[in-house]
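Worked example 2:
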Amino acid sequence: MEGSYDIHHKNEVNQFLVEALKIPSLTELLVSLGTGDDLLSIHANRVAMILQSIVSSASTKIANLTLIYPRGLLQLKSGIQIASIKRLSVTIHFAKTLMQLINVTPNLEELSLSIIMFDDTDLLKSIKLPQTLQKLHLEGGTYDYKKFSYEQPTFEMIRIFLDVFKHHIQSLTLIMNNADKKFATFDNFQSLSNFKLVNLKKLVVTSRSKMFSAGFSRLLLKIVDLSPNLNSLSISSGTNPNNLIKQLQRIMPKKYGKQFLHFELFLESNSKQWEFSLELSKMLPNLKTISIHGEQRFLDNCFTSLIEFVEDLQTHFKKLARLTIKTYGSNTDAFGRYENDLKKLSKQTNNPIYYTAKDQGVANYFLDIWL
């Protein structure tokens, strides 16, 4: 059972905890204390009291605990432990409070931590983290940096803090508000040499300029290099798409191009007829699907005959199985011409071509062609 409650008055706290902790199936608990209620004037460290109440409940099975308190946890009583907690989300005022927090949660696996003050990170060098800890989500920095500039963590402060976790965690999420400029240099994080974007499968590139900047090119190459499961590329260009593809060719090494199986192109301007198949196959030789979206007048400038276009694709992409064309601002004549081309092509080839055609209204047409 999960529980989520907002507490607005001091008298509600004790009663809420007493009743909630009686629930034998309660495994997840979220407690939120706002900054504007009367709790602040009564007990500035009410979060610590909540933890103490959980400890006092002999039957607790809470594995996931979230404590929302913007002012941050200040200190905890020594000697208390909540062995059932596996995942903890909390804000602490001082970084050194982490030492007390870890003592309370000896079997912690995931820690989501927001820290207000990082000026005492040297004290953490002697901390003993749970062997079970694998994931860390760390947030720091205040949005009101002009008023509280002294609270802004420096790169060195965060480096010392993360050094404590270097032999434990397998996953790190780091969010710094109004961060030190050094955080923008990925190479500073030497311990993340094996960092990978394993869940990134599709890369979307949008360009309105004729040439990529040097910084954008480096970023693009870095993303591809860090993404072992990347297999789909989508590009949107306000300029000649052939020019965009040639730029990508210069940036992307051939070893990376081979991993892409799907390609999507959005045409947003007029362009002269281009050697689409040849140029694209040099960069992405193993494509299985190609999708082209754009106004009918843009498509008409790119290829004069759908038959020639399909044959050209089949020549350069031996693994191509599907071509999708979606047109906007089209007319029945243009759409009918495409259908006739496909029928002719299907008759003159040894391998029949199958397709589905759909009128999506407002002069929008969709062709799905199986090769």
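The longest strand covers residues 87-94. The two ends are 51 Å apart (CA to CA).
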